[in-house]
Amino acid sequence: LLAAAQDFDFFYFVQQWPASYCDTKRSCCYPKSGKPEADFGIHGLWPNYNGGSYPSNCDPDSPFHPSTIANLTSEMGRKWPSLTCPSSDGLSFWEHEWEKHGTCSESVLTQYQYFQTALNLKQKANLLQILQDAGIKPNGGFYTTEAISEAIREGLGYAPGIQCNVDKGGNRQLYQIFLCVDTSGTDFIDCPVMSKSARCDGLIEFPPFSSGLGPDHQEE
Ligand code: 5GP
Ligand code: 5GP
Ligand code: 5GP
Fold this sequence. Notes:
By secondary structure, the chain is an alpha+beta fold. It contains 6 helices and 7 strands. One guanosine-5'-monophosphate is lined by residues 21, 24, 26-28, 84-85.
């Protein structure tokens, strides 16, 4: 291969707040295994360039092989649930993430290591605990993005990027948190550049995901 050994500069490790995915106009569907726990879930581990652009769909010859990651899938079901409709077991979400992003890190991580690395990073960055320890709770209250960022910078040692979305009522809310990770997938780093997707500013809601009630359009 003529490709350079290192064909990206760092990863974004992106976690999503399930309540904020579900309370939008598009709604959501819980996984076949049931409602996920009230915690941030993994969205993806995304190779990126220092300039802000990123590679995608790097290797059509490297399809997703669920059998390769069989001993990770039960943990992935809990830590990396898919909330799109219709309800799923997550495999199509993980396939999408592997094909779009994972294949661009193959110089560093095998398919097994890619998913294992994301699970390890989730373990290392317990964002909900960090936020709650700082008094930032998913209770429908409003918090500044500065307070959220500062709590994570204090608790983890690295400042995050914050992505907002909008709920059915038009409120801006905490949707995703971006952290940066070195090319080996081992350590968090200061972000070389922040994604355009994660530049939310101002006062935002941190909505609850605790009630037993399902999303409004579960069957949609
Ligand atoms: P992206 O391309 O944005 O990394 O991934 C988003 C894609 O994964 C979309 O096609 C979306 O439909 C699918 N997907 C499946 N489950 C989820 C989920 O729980 N959250 C998000 N954000 N996307 C999901
Ligand atoms: P994906 O199908 O790329 O490429 O989805 C496009 C956008 O719509 C992404 O931001 C994705 O997260 C969102 N999306 C896709 N399906 C659903 C869904 O079932 N519910 C919600 N709330 N968002 C979705
Ligand atoms: P959105 O436009 O909803 O923010 O992002 C849609 C999808 O584009 C994401 O799910 C992800 O797959 C990809 N994406 C968005 N921003 C970035 C970025 O800064 N870096 C990388 N590597 N992918 C991104």
